[in-house]
Design a protein that fits this description.
Distance between the termini: 24 Å
Largest sheet: 7 strands, mixed
Helix content: 10-25%
Number of helices: 6
CATH topology of the largest domain: FAD/NAD(P)-binding domain
Structural class: alpha/beta
Strand content: 25-35%
CATH superfamily of the largest domain: FAD/NAD(P)-binding domain
Number of domains: 2
Order of helices and strands: EHEEEHEEEEEEHEHEHEEEEEEEH
CATH architecture of the largest domain: 3-Layer(bba) Sandwich
Shape: elongated
Number of strands: 19
CATH class of the largest domain: Alpha Beta
Radius of gyration: 21 Å
Length: about 300
């Protein structure tokens, strides 16, 4: 392989759209599909995607990209390292041993929520979600829990309450403002500040939640706003500035604190994130990258 104009790390909605735009702009693109499947089973929040299976959508998108000789797809479990050489080129090392060079990097491989709640991973995007817009309708009138570890609880809780008034709010040991707690309780919302000890269910379907004091409540599904996220690529050969939540700091055009490194999608925007918004940021940042390359090479 030669030198790519841009290496896109992540084959999710942001990365796929960025690859399409750059490839159609006649830029040589390496799309590293890290196979981090974190999408819900169906895409619900956009009229153009409503009811589409996420996996089928992603497969169709990748097949479309294969039509363009300017886009080179690389499937790897993860990127092992990204290092910048003396000539300012980035060398990308994948876990599968495929290495290549690129002039610019777009980080679009998402984030992982960081929480001390045991076993939550087995329920994530099956019955515990980050956004009430993606799956609120499917959970209408169910017994829900909203876990918020940030202290800014009431705003999202009110949105979820419109989906189901059988709602419990849990802060997992984090503080909540007294006036917010009182406001929620006045609507019949039980607010539990104790730490979560255990989540019980089967095949990713939540059944109940047990707290440290022994209280167990029946819940069918819910949403979470964690206090911290981790990006999947940062720290592997370079470091971008992160905000207090662990998200990559970018300017209005997707540029990070590292020259020639950009970020789009979940890694650079706060939750709850919507798939269509991730797609939009991928397009927006790809336009920035193409513009920057055009100016530099003219």
């Amino acid at each position: 392989m030669g030198i790519f104009d841009c290496a896109i790390i992540g084959g999710g909605p942001a990365g796929l759209n960025a690859a399409l735009l750059l490839g159609r702009a006649n830029r040589l693109v390496a799309l590293v599909d890290t196979n981090n499947d974190h999408l819900a089973f169906e895409l619900q929040e956009s009229i153009s995607r409503n009811g589409n299976a996420a996996i089928e959508f992603m497969q169709a998108a990748k097949e479309k990209l294969n039509q363009y000789p300017t886009i080179h797809s690389i499937v790897s479990q993860s990127v092992r390292a990204i290092k910048q050489s003396n000539n300012k080129l980035f060398k990308i090392y994948t876990e599968d041993g495929e290495n290549f060079l690129a002039e610019k990097i777009l980080l679009a491989d998402g984030t992982k929520i960081q929480t001390a709640i045991p076993d939550i991973k087995q329920y994530y995007n099956k019955s515990i979600f980050t956004s009430p817009y993606g799956y609120g309708w499917e959970l209408k009138d169910k017994k829900l829990i909203y876990i918020n570890e940030t202290g800014d609880v009431a705003r999202t809780a009110k949105i979820i309450f419109n989906v189901s008034n059988d709602l419990v709010v849990a802060t997992n040991g984090y503080e909540i403002k007294e006036n917010e707690k009182r406001e929620l309780e006045n609507k019949g919302i039980n607010v539990i500040t104790d730490k979560i000890k255990e989540m019980k269910g089967h095949n990713g379907v939540l059944r109940s939640i047990t707290f440290q004091d022994g209280l167990e409540i029946e819940r069918e599904a819910g949403f979470i706003t964690p206090s911290i996220y981790t990006t999947n690529t940062i720290g592997q050969g370079f470091s971008c500035d992160l905000d207090e939540r662990g998200l990559i700091v970018v300017d209005h055009f997707g540029r990070t604190s590292e020259k020639n490194v950009y970020a789009a999608g979940d890694a650079a925007q706060p939750a709850p994130t919507e798939i269509v918004l991730s797609e939009a940021t991928g397009i927006q940042v790809a336009i920035t990258i193409n513009s920057d390359i055009s100016i530099e090479k003219f």
